């Protein structure tokens, strides 16, 4: 079993987890999540929960479970897409800053 390791700010910076101090506050802090898609998916999640609750263990409950699984798949897909977009945006900004420093 591995023991947890305490990482310092220096360790995190070397691993590329933290931006260099001169870049702090330089990046746009907005979400890359598609807000309309997220709202629609959340509505589907609420519908799934209502179907399961009011299904009372009958067929409607299992329809709700199916809809809930689709909800979970979609929310994961949207979240991962947003993370990839954010990562791409930070890399591009970091490359631009590096080019300007040269």
Brief description of this entry?
The protein is built from 3 helices and no strands. It has 102 residues and is mainly alpha-helical.
Describe the structure.
The protein has 102 residues and is mostly helical. 69% of the residues lie in helices and 0% in strands. It has helices at residues 9-14, 35-55, 59-101. Helix 2 runs antiparallel to helix 3. The longest helix is centred in the last third of the chain and has 43 residues, at 59-101. The chain is elongated.
Please state the overall shape, judged from the principal axes of the Cα atoms.
Answer: elongated
Query: Unreliable segments (pLDDT under 50, ≥5 consecutive)?
Result: none
Structural category is mainly alpha
Oligomer: single chain
Helix content: 55-70%
Q: What Rg is obtained from the alpha carbons, in whole angstroms?
A: 21 Å
What is the percentage of strand-forming residues? under 5%
Please report the distance between the alpha carbons of the first and last residues: 45 Å
Write the layout of secondary structure elements.
Elements: H1 9-14, H2 35-55, H3 59-101
Overview features:
102 residues, mainly alpha
């Amino acid at each position: 079993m591995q023991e947890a390791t305490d990482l310092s700010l220096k360790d995190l910076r070397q691993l590329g987890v933290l931006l260099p101090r001169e870049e702090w506050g330089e990046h746009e802090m907005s979400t890359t999540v598609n807000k309309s898609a997220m709202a629609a998916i959340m509505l589907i999640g609420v519908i799934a929960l209502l179907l399961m609750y009011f299904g009372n263990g009958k067929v409607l409950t299992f329809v709700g479970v199916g809809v809930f699984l689709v909800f979970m798949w979609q929310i994961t897909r949207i979240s991962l897409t947003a993370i990839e977009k954010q990562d791409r945006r930070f890399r591009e900004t970091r490359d631009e800053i590096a080019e300007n420093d040269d």
